Amino acid sequence: MTDLVTFGETMLRLSPPQGHRLETTDDLDLRIGGAESNVAAAVSRLGFDSAWLSKLPDSPLGRRVTVELQSHGVDTPVAWSDDDATRMGTYYIEHGGAPRGTNVIYDRADAAITTVSADELPTERIRESEMFYTSGITPALSEAAAKATATLLETANDAGTTTVFDLNYRSKLWTPEEAAVGYRALFDAVDVLVAAERDTREVLGRDGTPEDLVSGLADDYDFETVILTRGDEGALALHDGETYDQPVYEADTVDAVGTGDAFVGGFLAARLDGENVATGLEYAAATAALKRTIDGDIAVVTPEEVDAVVGEDGAGISR
């Protein structure tokens, strides 16, 4: 049995050295990045079995993704496409400080994942897992990806697998109105919802205090757990009628990309270990803080490092 199975797109990430511009650089650093694979890698590095499902082109670029994920202990039973019309999605990230800021350019049209079908994937892995995770990025990619996302969530739900969904709204993929319709179509099959406060207000059209937001979502959609991420304000969670407030752990930021995925990975690892929601939030915040100190999308962390951030009062993840 696999502890966690995830489903979604992973792209190649290309970036110039810090302080350089894409239009003038002679060098590009190659890494991989994708919300669902980032979560799978974090959970694996924290001591639990994880698998990532997707569809990739059967090419050296596609294999580059699986090789890197496997190096972090993630199983990769993906579907392979030999269609020359499909390709490997990429994105370019140009880091910059104030006042310029960081710029991200996506090049993901016609990626293999846009043609994915649930029938191509080993759905028995989901049925036999403890948890299944995906995010709102995936159904925004294409009609086929949206249908596959819905089918896999329903498969997990029917099997009694705990389902986890992160809104992960991306304005470059769809409008708030389109996203709201897409999200709500999936909510019946979701047990644990993770949502940024900004997206909850601007995309789902909710208002009120943070406490109002989590309680309203839980009541309206019968979620088992709702986690509201609030940036520098930390996170707020509602579970079994109890509200939990978790501040951030301070960190020097080397690369903020993937911080939210690290947060989810830390939380799920703690829950897979049998910890309560309060402890799960501590490990989520600690894993996210560590990720900010690491270049690339993936939280290359150890359980001992997370334990150290949480401190001696933390319960500790047993492995």
Automatic annotation (TrEMBL):
GO terms for molecular function: kinase activity. Residues 1-298 form the Carbohydrate kinase PfkB domain. InterPro entries: Carb_kinase_PfkB-like (IPR052700), KDG_KDGal_kin_Halo (IPR054871), PfkB_dom (IPR011611), Ribo/fructo_kinase (IPR002139), Ribokinase-like (IPR029056). Signal peptide: none annotated. The keyword Transferase applies. CDD domains: KdgK. Keywords: Kinase, Transferase. Belongs to the carbohydrate kinase PfkB family. This is 2-keto-3-deoxygluconate kinase. It comes from Haloprofundus marisrubri.
